[in-house]
Amino acid sequence: MQTVVVKFGGPMLATTEKIVQVAKKVIKEQGRGINLVVVVSSMTPIRQNLRQFAAEITHEPSKRDMDALIATGAQLTSALLAIAIQEHGGKAVSLVGWQAGIQTNEKYGNARIDFVDNKRIEKHFELGEIVVVSGFQGITETDNISTLGKGGSETSAVALAVALNAERVDIYSSVEGIYTADPQRVESATKLSEISYDEMLEFSNLGTKILHPRAVELAKKYNMPIVVRSAKEDVEGTLIKGDVDMEKNLLVRGVAYESDIIRLTIGYDSYETASLAEVFSVLAENDINVDIIVQAVIDGIKPTISFTISKVEFAEALRVLESSKLSLGFSFADFEVGLAKVSIIGSAMASNPGVAARMFARLGREHIPVKMVSTSEIKVSVVVPQEDMVYAANALHEEFNIAMKEVPAS
Amino acid sequence: MQTVVVKFGGPMLATTEKIVQVAKKVIKEQGRGINLVVVVSSMTPIRQNLRQFAAEITHEPSKRDMDALIATGAQLTSALLAIAIQEHGGKAVSLVGWQAGIQTNEKYGNARIDFVDNKRIEKHFELGEIVVVSGFQGITETDNISTLGKGGSETSAVALAVALNAERVDIYSSVEGIYTADPQRVESATKLSEISYDEMLEFSNLGTKILHPRAVELAKKYNMPIVVRSAKEDVEGTLIKGDVDMEKNLLVRGVAYESDIIRLTIGYDSYETASLAEVFSVLAENDINVDIIVQAVIDGIKPTISFTISKVEFAEALRVLESSKLSLGFSFADFEVGLAKVSIIGSAMASNPGVAARMFARLGREHIPVKMVSTSEIKVSVVVPQEDMVYAANALHEEFNIAMKEVPAS
To answer: Where does the Aspartate/glutamate/uridylate kinase domain start and stop, copy by copy (chains A, B) (predicted)?
Structure first.
């Protein structure tokens, strides 16, 4: 019998009423004659309450005990969903992370999955039960409860699917799939029927919040298909898989953007005092995510380095740089706020060097200043003023004719 | 090093502010140079929320998944308390039931502890950590989460104390100890410095809510001393132990009462149709607790049986009896509401047959009608009209001169 792992996020489980809706949906899914694992996150209001409780006691809780605290969230949802499935005529069992065999390392708050022991879930399959698993959590070798950090629930789902040799992972979401651009802001955006892991990774990394890159990376590693689909509408979603042959001819697959970017620049008097690697080590140690990095030289001898961070991490980044100024040896630091990042993505780009040039030309014609540039094999990102972000996304979506190629006009 | 297990109930952990108070208290306790285990219940509002969630989905949740749900409550408290202890300078680790080695049978919702594996807690002691354990829960042989039912947190504490060969269990409570009678209603009530397990069992069974009889029974079995003490005031509590030699001369140790009692009577036409044992089997199967039972014969041939139940179980008891009327074969049933039970307790009573007579005589002089009587080796209970309950308790407290004997006038 085929196995499918499905995942529902916090907003889809925010109330008991919504949990009952999910219960009915998964009973119907299992009715198609499959083994079904349902991975759930914490109900959104519960997660907030748990963090609030801890914050009332301290701003630096121990990560180990914080994980024991946070893990109660998804345990609560999985128990409630199992109860709801039973109430509506299905057979179900709820399992917390350790019961589902999710073994992790000891990095509390951001643990990595080492392996999944599928024995217990297989037994519940034999009983015809829908197995509801608390996502985002596991157990360490020393029998401590761990949580998986950002993207943890989706990563749980992919890891379970791999261990159970599942057919695919269905990620139920508030949107109907992956779009060529944000349909809220780019009028001609269309839903993709398929997308490759690499392209999806770029979409995820570039601010599309639907699926965390960590889960996509794991799926890519084991070639596990993921479908992003709507929890509300019964329409086809977007299949994420290894190769997307049918659409290889499409140069640019989509446009992504991310707002509230800040550019930080730090400069050194000379190469002797510059320790560029150390800057990023210090930032990484303080969990500040740096995105685009550009290095330049002023006056032929004064090296500067610019990088982008998100607005929410700005204050912390400044604090870290200030307190490390002496050891890092830089002579000045400044910043620019009110920026955004716009990216074009497509795996065919690698073999087509003209894509970036065409992107810059179009932005030039639209009088949109490009502040920073970053490229990879399958994407080009530019940093532009925040107020130009949506306009730039629309222009690029049109420039590369994305919508037209994806869905023929009907 | 001596080991002490302490237990805090839900009302003492109802807010993060209260949790911080408990944290400071246990840090001080451990500072006396002991190994310390702290058993905690669910924060009172959380427990209510959890049950409410399930009730919104169904009125008959599966007990197994309900246990997974309810267990999150104490897990949350134990994690928060460990975090609070660390924040205030102590070393602590939180453990859920299975991590603390509490193995139970599979009777979900009302599981019994089979044994406690103390290995992990001993390891944390070696690290100098205060071990905060989620009470009320354990793990079954098949690795399912179970909860212990009524009195579960106190029972966890006693079981852990036995397994760790602890010096004693401290039950922190909203009261300062066990009183000769309810100090709110009996003016001359005084705190007992010591009380025997058997006497405490009677107090617990007779409506004193401080300590569940199940925990007392376990403590009695292993001769584990329990101290009931105030969470607020640093005053001596009441020590519950095997023998209370010093006060053996005291005939009656205390007066207890319980309000909102209902008497149910069912009658049969003849002995042939009567199946008295079956009545109580049916009630027990439906989890209805029957207290005092009195059997009588009317007209020489018609047997009747009267028993008391608490008001909250009245509707359910009627429903059960009604639906089993045919199979039970009784001819009529009636009931009397507005009753209360008043009891005198004392282990010296066994060797003094005049105590009950003196109790009835005094109640007679006070014109308090006695509706039912029940006696044991160490207590006599009478059922009286609810409105006479407090007056009867005061009269009996005076009659047996309890306050005078316990604490000499100073």
So the answer is: 3-230
Answer yes or no: is pLDDT of B399 > 80.
yes
The per-residue pLDDT for range A273-315, each reduced to its tens digit, is: 666 667 888 888 888 888 888 777 666 677 888 889 989 889 8
Q: Which of B65, B123, B166 lies closest to A75, judged by CA?
A: B65
* Domain locations in chain B as residue ranges: 3-173, 255-406
For residue range B214-254, list pLDDT tens digits in order.
Answer: 999 999 999 999 999 998 888 899 999 987 665 555 678 88
Contact at CB, A69 and B79, closer than 8 angstroms = yes
Class for the domain spanning A3-173: alpha beta
CB contact under 8 A, B82 and A93: no
**What's the predicted TM-score (pTM) here?**
0.81
CA torsion angle B8 B14 B18 B19 (round to 10): 60
Q: How far apart are CA A118 and CA A101, in angstroms?
A: 6
DSSP assigned state of A179? B
Angle subtended by helix axes B213-222 and B152-163, to nearest 10: 10
Contacts of B60 in chain A (CB under 8 A): 87
Q: Give me the interface pTM, i.e. the ipTM.
A: 0.78
The partner residue sitting opposite B84, judged by closest CB among A57, A68, A72, is A57
Record: contact A19-B57, CB cut-off 8 A: yes
Report, in this order, helix, strand and coil percent for chain A, each rounded to 5.
40, 25, 35
Assigned CATH topology for domain B255-406:
VC0802-like (3.30.2130)
pLDDT digits (tens, 9 = 90+) for B139-165: 999 999 999 988 999 999 999 999 999
- Distance of alpha carbon A119 from alpha carbon A100, whole angstroms: 9
In CATH terms, are A3-173 and A255-406 the same topology? no
Residues of A within an 8 Å Cβ radius of B: 16-17, 19-20, 50, 53-54, 56-58, 60-62, 64-66, 68-69, 71-72, 75-76, 78-80, 82-84, 86-87, 92-94, 96, 99, 120, 143-145
What is the percent of chain B with per-residue pLDDT over 90, rounded to a whole number? 53
Out of B16, B79, B87, whose CB is closest to A68?
B79
Asked if residue A392 has pLDDT above 70, the reply is yes
pLDDT one-digit tens code per residue, A217-232: 999 999 999 999 998 8
